Amino acid sequence: MKIQPIVVGTAGHIDHGKSTLVKTLTGIDPDRLKEEQERGMTIDLGFARFQLPDGRTVGIVDVPGHERFVKNMVAGATGIDLVILVVAADDGGMPQTREHLAIMSLLGIERGLIALTKIDMVDPELVQLAAEDVRAAVAGTFLEKAPIFPLSSLRGDGLEAFQKALCQMASQTPARSAQGVFRMPIQRVFSAKGFGTVVTGIPTSGEIKIGDTLELLPQGLLGKVRGLQAYSQGTESARAGHSCAVNLSDVDHKSVTRGNVLATPGYYRGVKMLGATLRALPGLHRAVRDRTEVRLHIGTAEHLGELVLLDVAELEPGASALVQLRMQEPVVCAPGDRFIVRLASPAITLGGGVVLEESKHRLKRFKAFVVEELGRAAQSVESPRELLEVTLTRAKDAVQTPEALSVEIKRTRADTERLLNDLKAQGKVRHLGLSRWIHAERLEHDLERVQTELSALFAAQEHRELMDVRELRKTTRLPADYLDLLLAEGETRGLWTAEAGGMIRKAGQRALAPAQQALADAALSRLLAARFQTPSPAELAPLIGAAEKPLLAVLELLADRGELVFVTLEFALPKTLHEEARQAIIANCQAHGSLDIPKLRDTLGTTRKWIIPLLEHFDTAGLTLRQGANRVLRKRSQA
Description:
By secondary structure, this protein is of the alpha+beta class.
């Protein structure tokens, strides 16, 4: 069986002939419940298949028209791509006609045609008046220019023209994309003898095949696909746009209800807060107020919750706003999902909108950054590439992996990596290696922040050319691993240099002022002459006729430049003497197996006052290792 992956849906007031028209077109009675057939009134969703002239099959969802069953109507409308608005010629437009039309508009449906039914119930001259009445009712909606087909499902008048137009429109309706990970809001669940649990619905994204493992949400139950049907025929696979039945193993049918979601494991989760856009119906009698108790209809689910207005004090009829929906029970959804909100009581449709995010926190009203971020999300939600870019921009952790991003945007890892590479080619994101990605603007912003903080630290200590990275962590308050990435990026750009011991050297080396250079030369000369019995900075200052504070600043600068090593704060060695001591320790250990301290003391011409801190310094530096009462070379030091 060839399937055109779209679904046609009916809409309209009760007793206007929706189910009769479907049965006439398909030969299938969509009223499957006994009470529906006895009453002649559709209570729940009905399903039928319709064959196009080229042999392809499309699904038809018949929805109830009674106001008490609008929640069932919305559950069926979720997967519709093309609508048949049914209006009876003897009644004309009625309350549910207008409400169904509004709901279809809010759900983003853009294509459809109009069946003016029951023309056998009125005089011929009244049919034209009824058509004019319908045309006025759909003015300003997506059906404003839709063709109207007067017909009688019982006598067959006008059916041929209507069926031809329906086939043509169904053939021209773009097939629903199968991209993304699999997700199917569940419309029905039952247990079939010999098969076990069967769930039905219209997948909104992705595809599955027999043998796949799926997750039932929000329960988190896992089950394997034992069998698949599309339009009552067995198939090896099913995809978005197919009305299908899934036979699941390891899942009890009693644990499944309409409104649950069947999905590829690991991508979806139940959340109680959603950021969204909301448009109020133009015909409301009053503005929607903040903290209104509402019923959220999303997918095939209905949830009670609270509506929080984020950027307006009240939502006027026909206006739009950014909102947060705070629900009593977990909701399974994705950015881009359409929804309807109705007043909790009485059940009046207030409006509809689009999910922008699965909120992790309560959003505060009138906060500029909240409004700005959700506004960006609203502009990107229709494009997976733009949604990914905004997700990277808004992520709490600047650096993200494709796995984490794929969960946020509900795409496979392969799709996510392809989108990342597209953004990289546009210069919008950067790949930092090891499957780490960051938004280019965020990288530049944080890199500039690090550079500013580093400059401030050096400005506070003008005599220094090296800065401990720990000081930078304190001032930037950036996570250590992220700061390391930024420092590596800055080093690549020549902004600074990373050195051993967690030190950062600023770019360029300034020349010393003549007075500083003279002080440096005098200090080095005196320290070289003292060899391994060097005076402390406080002792050195009067020996060369200098003040202690400027001398210490020059010594620290010499240490930053690698010309001097501080063994302790009171014991500094010129680089040449430091290297001489290192080589003497190596030679001593190699000659005696372990360090002979008296011989080393004699070799260096020093005393216990200086030899002990010198040995502890080289222990810390990793040259030597204490073993009991002895010191030996570390293995890597012997290489």
